[in-house]
Structures are given as structure tokens and as C-alpha cells.
Amino acid sequence: MAAAAALAVAAPSPVPLQSVAAQATAAGSTGADSSSLAVLAAASDPAFVTQPQPQTVPDGGSVTFSVDFPGALHYTWFRTDAEGSVPIPNSNAPSYTFTADHSDNGATYSVRVFDRNAAQHRSDEARLTVTPVAASIAEPPHDTSVLAHHRARFTVTAAGTGPFSYQWQRQADGQGTWSDIAGATSDTHSFKSAPGDNGARYRAVVDNDHGPSTTSAPATLSVISGGGSLEPVERASLEWGVNNIYQGGNPANADCNFFSAGTQQEFRAQKGDVRIIHRATDGSAHGISNATKCIPSSQAQLNQRALFTNGTGTANSATGEATIEWKGAFTANAYAGMVTWYLEDPTLTIAEDGTGRLTATSGGTGSSRDNPGETEPVPPRGVTVATFSEVRLNTTAGPDGGVQISPEFSGVDYFPLTDGVRSTTSAIPTEVKEAVPDWGSWPESFVDFQYETGLSSYWHTSGLGADPDKPPFDLTVLFNSAPDVKNVPVILANPSTTGTAPYVEGRDLSITADIDGEADLQWQRSGSAAGAWTDVEGAREETLTIPNLGSSWNNNRVRIVATNSEGEAVSGALTVTTAPYSVPTFSQPPRDLLAVQGTKAVVPFRVTGNPPVDSKKIVLERSDDQGASWQRWSGAEYSEPLAGQKQQFAIASIPRSADGTLARVVAVNVEGTETVSDPFSVRVFRSTGKPQLVVVPDAPVDPDATTKLTVLGAGFDVPDWASPTLTYSLDVGLFDAEVWQPGRTGTRNWIATSPDSVSGQIHHGVMQQSGGAFTIGLTVPAGRLVPGHRYGVGAFLRLTDITNWQDTFDNRSLDAWSAVPLTTDPDSSENEQTITATVPEQAGEFTWTIDASDRAVTMTDAVNKGAYLQSTGDLKPVKVTDTRAAAPAWSISGQAGDFTGGLSGKYLGWTPAVLTDGAGAHAGTPVAPGIDTGDGLTASATLGSATAGHTKGTGTLGAALDLRVPGTTEPGTYTTTLTLTALS
What we know:
This protein is an all-beta fold. The chain is globular, with a radius of gyration of 40 Å.
């Protein structure tokens, strides 16, 4: 076990360190760029008649640097600051003129010149000093007029040296004192107006710490109350895209969170008064089809919207006050339709003061509580979908008017329901609120509903990557009209082919799409999903024929563009992959099959070819007469491989009668060409009906040679989780019989384990899925086996506490052993039998642990002690448990390596201590830091120990750490590893 210790050394420098790990300034340094200073002190090049001269200008002033170099062929000016020296674009003349900014202060400018002989010369560096300019007002706020309850906006433009600070002030009724407006500290002050704001004046105080602050001229706000009246509406429209989570597109028209008109999951472009549209890059609305529902309208974005029309109610186009109802529904299909929810019959209510809400009936599907892999209906209920405190009049809506609404999200909290009881703990953790200033949530009843669908935290801030996409989109409402929707061509079917990819090179390939109605067609191709797309010459029909398909088409995308008078529709893209013709071949043939009777036997292989093998014509055959005749292996099931894996046949429960048979795989490609694998043998071992291990080959192992073994296991019914935090798994390894035998406590002191396991461990889920059987490889390393010792492959249960990842090996129910004989073993007589008896270890165990979740020690910042810098800290507690009956002696020691950055580990010392008595623990001897003499903790030192015969129990050890480093140590962060070792 190891623990990390970190030390931060701060330099006695007036320059603050931005990061102790990334920056360290030597003691007494000013932090200046020494390389720049060296350049300034360099001797001047005598070829320059005139060198650039230092300049001082005010912020925003014009500055010119110039040189005189007779016979110069080319000039390039350079700017140098703390970040380095860079060439200035378009600076190829004897002089360079520009407008100085305060960020240029302290930079130096030089020019590099090539003479007639192509030799390079560099001028002196000329320093630029830019003096700051006090803040002034370039443009004051202007008088403005707004409707009551609508947003007022004032802006001020400052001049001088930035950055600027702002404070807006208000004067009521144009007289009296000026008062600061809380939170109004940017160049723009925007707020929802009220009738009482009429006649108020607003001004901004601007400062930049380079002179006295300045105050803008005031601007007067006129608030107009009333106007218009509620009028009946019969053709209102509501357009909405939910949020950005529902806008990700896919050029292949698949796997997107698509909308559908109606309450069903299947796509419908229109149902009743609801239509699904996409907004194009120019803002126009287009109809879509099932074949184009996932195709992006702009870059990777769908820009999909649900459009409700023919809404009825009343509205005041002058103020935005309204109550409107729509009939119909749209469904949002999350995870490409795996989770669906809908909104039906929405109602919009806007009060005279601009506040309001959108309500609707919501229903859908969610994961079953009994079976999370299945879905079940979520009962419909009324929900509040959006709330808002103001609206914006839509100035482009025409005489009938309309509004744009930004639903509330930021600052809205959510407290989830648990078994019908509202929690008092927010679903948005405090640390997330601190890290995400715009944290928020959708309305409570809507989020309650979404928790039942399983989409839960997609509707409030969670601190995860999707947070920026969660706030709601604006609602667009037209009071008595609807947006124009262009009826572009309808693509009924995206490009497809009857062939199977990869398509055979040298043959003709036909790709077909289906377009409804009259339209001009054009096929296009691209070497990338992102474009650019080019027209395929002459390809203007629904079928694209590529004669004599060549490799130049490999990994190209093809699509069809259909155009009519309303606009264009673009199909999904088909990827064309090509490869030369090849007959079906077993690139990885099946190997001899080994299995235990009644277990699942798997035959892996890989057969390839182009055109590909027909998966319906791959057969596993067996022969019971050594290959004289063959028949299909009844019950053998074929499965297609996952990415990167092999094809395989599986025999659910292989019978003992299959032992000694032969088997082979027959495969046929889609054109009827057949290939047959070489026969392989089948060996089925008799089941014992209890945990058993079989090692193949069963011949003796030469201890001086590397030997590969196959280990079969059966009957290992690993128990279910002992508790929600305790899980069983199976350990398998090669052991010396003196180290482990069945009946003894399990141990990790193996000789070898299988690379098919996790350091000897086969996890609970794997064992359950396999029905308690496994087949793994195991390599016996040369020179590790000692003649005269007995060895075998052993298996036993491991119990892991996932709260601290501590393991115990006390359950003996699945102990198993299979002897591995050596070639050096004496020959045995035919009349002899080997009988193995196991004497269990004494009861109890000796363990020591460090909290797996907390092994990092961060020490205090170093303090200057004159002759050295000192940092202190505490070792993380080490828990020792000893319940062994004989109570043998034990000890735990520690040893430190050198710190990163070349700092010796000898400077670290400790004073051990017993934190809690138990297990006979005694503290080790203190070790002084090796600042003057000694090796410190680079030499192994005892943390704690106990003598033989000590009392049983549990104790805790600790140590006060003491680091003393030379006073000349460079500032920075230093880390070492302290390794603890237990002996008993």
C-alpha cells in the first residue's frame, strides 16, 4: 500500500503564484522575463543607421516604430512580451504604425531585416509604454418608451482604458436623490417595467481605477399603460422546440430524439392541427417526412418544432394579454423512441402584467419498476409546462399580433417526490449550484412527471455535461395566424440498395430512393459526413447506378436532393464501402472443443469474404464416425459477433455422449459459394455434480519450461450479493499445495493467474451468466515450480465490500482443486492411490487496511524556519486487526521515495503513534528528517508492531509527518510515495 504526500513551497516574492504546480518564482526575483532583458542589453547591429526608439503614448493613441537600414530587401516586425516573441502580420515596411492598447504596455518591438546577401539582421528592442486613460462617456443612455410590464433597456458606452466597472442609478419621477440599483453593474441595464416607472430617470456611473469616476447624462423612461382590448381569436398558433436536447440530428436519419404529431411513438408529420416542421438556416419552415425526421437542417442541429394551429380564445395584440387553447398533441421520442412523452391540448394564459403559464395534459411511457428493461405507460395528468414573468411583443407578427415567451428556468429549484412525499432536499446539490450560476429547473409538476418516465434529471441542472442543453426554448405565439410552411418534396424512402456492404469492386451498384410527387432530382456524393457535397454528373433519377464500382467510392456518402418551387428536401446519406471480391475463408478457424458435461459449450471462429457470408447458411456439423458422415449439430445456435469479436456457435448443455466426436463449421456466402473448416475434436469431461476443475493437457508439467494450460470450471454457483454492499466472486489460480488447499482461507499468494480473469478474479455477473462454468487459459512460467513440491489449480470464493473494496476469503463452499503433476515427480505404482487430507488454518486472521478512498496526504505550506523550510502533516490512519489464536508477532514499516522535482525523500521524518489501542500495537521509534544528517524515511522504519502472544483485537496506527527542506528549495509542489509493508 502507498500513500501520497504533497508539499507546496511559496517563494518570498511580491509576484503572486497563479498555480503552485505550474509556476515557481525564485526567491528575490521580480518575475520579469530574463530573456527579454538580455535582448535589451545586447549590442546594437551597426548595419542599422537608425534603430527603433522607445515610445510612450496614451491608451488608444497612435504609435509608429521605424528603422533606417540601407539596402534592405525585406522587413518583418516582431512584438515581444512575457508570452514570447511573435511576428506581426502585414508588417513588411521600414516603419510599423498601429493603435496602442493598454495591453501593449511593456511590450517591446523590433524588426528583422534581410540584406542584399540574404543575411538576417535584428534591430534593438524598443519598449512601448502605454499610459492609462481615465474613464469617460462615449455614448450616454437614451430616453426610451415601453409598454407597461414590458422590458426596458438602457445602454452606456464607455471610453478610456478598460476594464470598466458600472453602477446604474435611478431617480424617481425625474427629481430627488439618485439611488444605486442592486445588481445593475454592466454596460446594459434591462428590466421589466411597471406603470410606476413612468418618468423615472436612469444613469450610469463608470470607473476604471485610472482617474475619477464619470457619470453619464440621465435618460428618461416613459411607460405607456393600457391600450388595445381582448379580442376573440380562432387561428392562433404555438410553435415550440422544447430544448436543445431534442435538436441533435443525424445525417443517416437514425437515432435522434424526434418529434411526432399525435400521442403515438411512430412518426407522423401531421395529425389534426399539429404539424412537425424543421426550421432551415434562413429561418423558413419546412415540412418533413419519416425519411427526413432526423436529418439536420443546420450543421448538426435538427431545428425541429411542434406547430399547433387553429387555437381559440382571446388576445390583446397591444399588450400581449391572452388566454388561448389548442387541440391536438405532439410526442417527443427520447433515445430515438425508447422513452416517449407527449403534450396534449395545451392552454396558454398571459395576464395583463405579462406573467403566465403554459399547461397541458402529459403522458407517455417509462421503465417498469419490476423489469427496468421493459416500458410501461405513465398515466396522463395535467402539468404546468412553462411559467414566465413577462412576454415580448412579436413585431413581425402582422396586425393580429403575437408574443415571444422565454420560460423561467434559472434559479427555479426542484424537490423530488419520494413515495408521494415531497423531499426537503433539493435535487440540485449545493456544490452544483455554486459551480453553475444559471442552475435551474422546469416547473415542478412537469419534472414530477418526467421522473416517472425515467428522464428525471434531464429537466433540471445536475452538474453533468448535458446541463447547457436543458433550459427551455422560447415559445412563439401568433394570435390569429400561423407561420408559412413550405411544402418541399416528400422523401418517402432514403437511399438504399439490395446489395450487402462492402460492395464488390468491379461490379455495377444500384442505389434507389423514393420521392413523392414532381421534383427535380440530383444525386450527390461526399468523402465526409460533414461534406462538402458535389453533384454526381448525370444522376437525376430516383436510381443511381455506379458502373464498374471502383475503390474511389470507398467510404463515400451518397444522398439525393429533391427540389420543387417551395424549396428542397435532402435525403439521408448512405455510406458506400467497397472491397475486392474474395471467397469465404476461415481467417480464424474453430479450435478443439473442451467442455464439462451439462455446461454451455462455445465454438468461436471467424469466417470472412466479399460478398459476405450468409448468416442463415452457417452450420455447425458433427461426425460420430470420425468424419465418414456429417450431420447438423442439433441445438447449436449461431450468433453474429459484436464489434471486434468472433462469430460463434453455442451448445446450451453439451451432453457427455458428444465426447470423442468431430465437428466442423460450414459457411456459404450470399452468392452460394461454400467453405468448410477443418474438423476439430470434441472432448466432454464427466460432471461431478459439484464444484470441479479440469486442467488440460493433463500431462505432467516440466518446471523448467513455460507451459500453457486450459482450465475448465463447472458447478460454481456463486452466491448472490450477501448485502447491497457485499458481492461474491470466484478466484482461480495456480498454487503451491503448501500455500493453499481446499479448506484453508483463500489467499492471493498464487504462482500464476489467467489473463482471462481480473488478477485471478472472475466477477459475480460473469459466473451467473455462464451458469457457474468457465474456460480460461493459464500460463505456468518457467522456473517457478520447485521439484518435490505439489501444485494444483485452485478455486475459492472472494467476498468484497464495495464501500471500501476490502476482500475476505472465509466462505469454503466452492473450494475446488485439480492437481498439476510435474515431470520431476517420482513414478507412481499402478496399485497406489493419492489421498490428500487438509488441516484448516487456525481460526482468525491478520489484516491491515488504509481507507481506499482517502490515501492522499496534503501537508501544510512550508514555513521559513531560518535554516530550513518546514511542512507538517498527519499520516492517514492504518487499521490493524489480529484475531489469530496463536497471536504471532507482527510489524508494519514504511519507506519513502524521493519527491518529484528531484527533492530527496530523506528530508521526510515521522513520529509514530498508537491512535487506538488494540492488537497489541506499540508505536515505532521516531525518525528525524535528514536535513543535516541521516536518511530520514528513505530507510525503512517501523510504524508499529506487536510481540508474540499479544492480545487479539483491532488497533489503529498513525504518525505525525515532519518535512524539513533546505531554504534554497525552489518553490513548487512536490509529491512522494510512502510505501507501507506488513510482516507477520
